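Fill-in record for Tn4652, TnpA repressor protein TnpC, putative.
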Amino acid sequence: MKKTLITTALLAVLGGAAPAAFAQAEHSAHHGGASAASEADAKLAEGTVKKIDQSAGKLTIAHGPLESLGMPAMTMVFRAARPNLLDQVKVGDRIRFAVEKVGGALTVTSLEAAQ
């Protein structure tokens, strides 16, 4: 009798949790676009282009913290993932950019003008 009561109580609790879990999942899925965009924005660092070296395919950026790499704010030289990235900016431009470690080198994989 006692086991039946415990089992019934457990099923009642779990049964009540399932709709709540489903509702939370549905809510998250509904707002997934905004959450995904916010997450992508969080991965972009802000900085100022200090130097562009077209022949080496590199740019120097004074940047804020690189959260994705756990690095503090500083000025660094980065490799450009594609040569056309260097054509999108000029010295002094404020930018938002994504950086990843590619083949052991810190590489700017995307950038955009900061607003």
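KEY FINDING: Residues 2-30 form one domain.
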